[in-house]
Amino acid sequence: MKIPTSLTSAVRSTLLGSLALTAFGSLAALAQEAAPAVADAAAAAAPTVDKGDTAWMMISSVLVLFMIVPGLALFYGGLVRAKNVLSVLMQCTGIAAVVMVIWVFYGYSFAFGGGTSPYWGGLGKVFLSGVTPASVAATFTKGVGIPEYVFICFQMTFAAITPALIIGAFAERIKFSATILFVILWVTFVYFPIAHMVWDANGLIFGWGALDFAGGTVVHINAGIAGLVGALLVGKRAGLGRDMMAPHSMPFTMIGAAILWVGWFGFNAGSALEANGTATLAMINTFTATAGAIIAWVAIEALARKTASMLGAASGVVAGLVAVTPAAGTIGPVGAIFLGAIASIVCYYMVAVVKPKLGYDDSLDVFGVHGIGGIIGAIGTGIFTSTTLGGVGYAGEVTMGAQVIVQIKAVLVTLVWSGVGSFILFKIVDVVIGLRPTAEAESIGLDLTSHGEAAYHN
Known about the structure:
The protein contains 15 helices and 3 strands.
């Protein structure tokens, strides 16, 4: 039987309509299924905030502050003469306060402002523009973050302690006003650019693949060479080699060293930016490297001088901590012991042999311990990160030799940038207000002449 044309058209229309509805329904269903997948992908790409990581980073930030005051202040304060102890305490406190304010005004932006320059972060976050309690700072691992305010505080403590380290090189013979002016200029033109170059994803040294987990270049080499330049430009202490200049309170120094060791766990383990396995690796390395350095310093001192001193042990604490700082998250605990011991021996040689021969007056051995220890640590990081030596290994196809070359380049850039920059800035301060107090003020002591008070009363 022949089917009428009108019926054929009706059936065709019905079938096409059914197919269209079916296809539309299928597409709608697929879209509904795809939407959660897209949302999940977006959620995975956006860092999520973990309360445990946030709590750890808040604690780490406070631990680094603990390193500055009271830790570094007591360590340095005990090493100077009684008439200058308050001046050192005041310098540490004043520097910390000034740098924290500068960090909020423009320091954070200069270092981590989101700019694409290899040398500075730009003006994008001046006065913390755009930062809110909801802002998230992504960590070095994918998908995890911490509140940006916490990251700002953590990095702020690094910026505050670094210039405070410098003052030990010319302690007992610099004006308080000169110290503060120099620090303002130094963090602006030296520290913030170095921090950006090493730690920001767009930074010059970061782009080379240099390893600096917690600040071997940014903090210790940076401060060490600036301290040496300052010591040379300010000149020697009056009466050096003639007057008694022994530390006035070794208990202060030992307490300060112990506080530094405790606070350094925030410094090193906190630099993982998470409470994770890398943080635990940095933690154990902070134990073992320091222990190895103490033993090495005390042993070589006992061999050379027939006695093992408390000052030597305290110096070993700092040498080991400095050396392991750039390596804490990438080397193994046994490698950390050897790195700490090697750095301690070299630092002892610089302090006990090289400095007296060259005749410069690095009062509290800032260059001899922080500068040299930082160099040993930075280069040693390139060696001990190797898996054959217990480290976590290098990125991609990088070899030990290639990594060591990159580490040396990072050290050289830091030495030149900080050394030349510090020289210029010290000269500017000297012209503007003068670096050194009068001979009379220095003889009386900076506690009375600069601050109008004395630490001790008979």
